[in-house]
Design goal:
Blueprint (H helix, E strand, L loop, with lengths): L6 E4 L7 E10 L5 E10 L28 E4 L14 E4 L7 H7 L9 H29 L4 H34 L8 H8 L2 H19 L4 E3 L6 H12 L20 E3 L5 H13 L12 H34 L6 H30 L5 H4 L1 H33 L4 H30 L3
Amino acid sequence: STDSLTWVLGFDDPLPGGTTGVRWTVQAPDAHPIDGSFSFSAPAAASVEADAVPEASEAPSTSAATPEPTRTTVAPATQPTQTTLAAELAAEASSQPESTALADFLNTEDRNAAGADATNTVGRLLGLIGATVGIGGLIFAALVMRGHEGDIRSVLFWVRRAGILLTVGAIVELVAQVAVTGGRWSALWSASSIGDIVTSSFAIAVGLRFLGGALLTTGAQLGVSNASTMVDPTAATRELATTASAGSTLLGHAPIIGTDQPEDKAWRAETGLGAFLGAALILISFVFDGHTVTEGNRTVHAFVNMAHVAAGTVWAGGLLMLADVVWRRHRRGADTRALQLAVRFSVVAASALVIAGIAGTVLAVIVLDSVSEIWSTAWGRLLLAKVAIVAAAASAGGYNHKVLIPRMTTDPDDSSATERFRAVVTAEAIALILVVATTAFLVGAAS
């Protein structure tokens, strides 16, 4: 095993000759079970002649000595702390090694609760979408959003709906996980199956998400003030970066200060302290969930994982809110003020993208034991797909930054540039939704 763990099965009685099938199941600390099967062939032991009676003066014949017990090694796919190993044996005649009975025995998928894995993935996807919109929407409302009160209200509306989605996802995941672990839907009424889940770290993750979702739903309260009277940390960060780089506008092409209109409102973040607490609990929950949470040093893994999730949700969720506000203004025939939003969001997105990239690379190094696992394992292949989609989204963002923002800065009345910006932002948002969907499968995959 790549985890330096080996499971050894010893048999009290010698195995008969022929083909033997073995089914195994291990349960990781996050309660996600991993199972598999294999078969092997063993030669038949020499039979003892029934009529071969030794002389009284002779020692018993050793020509048919009892064979040593067979030992079979089973290597789990992930390092477990709570392990259940269910190995069932089916012996088949050596003349029929590929028999239907053996093939049916080795097919472990038929013995799982129908649809439980798919339901689990759906619950995980709902939770990830909720986390992305909820956390990203909060940061967008606090740092980026300036404008009409209705626009701020719309962003907070999506944050609250994201909280509901998180709680629903947590419930779906919990129910599906009991069925997955128990191998059948009737396990939902089994005290032992429920106990296995409740005492696992998976239960901590689900509980934190449920509570975090509830706090997002109830804590994202609307409280606005005139933008000109409030401290603007985004503008301060932008100006500091510009000053430190000797006047080079590294985080955009137009200034932030002076872009607010007299009637612009800004969200008072102190009215959403409960929602920010909920966001923190949601981030912590990802430390306890997924097949790879036990890889590497737990403290380092936890810190890097939270940084990766936080940065990813700020980028993806903020971009979704940016697209929503631009389209909302466009539908009601108002000035989209795309340049102001783009420049403000670029400050947040640039930082988030760098952190997400660094943390994601560190996580890949922690989880993968060799470069070949990138294409030889399910986790590695999903990681490649995720990186490819992220690269496409980042390229769209780069196009906005290098081409469209300069055009809108030079000519604020260039409607074609604004329309293209709206289209590119929408495409980028769709790409990041696909990233979230890929992540839902990645969390449940084994490395």
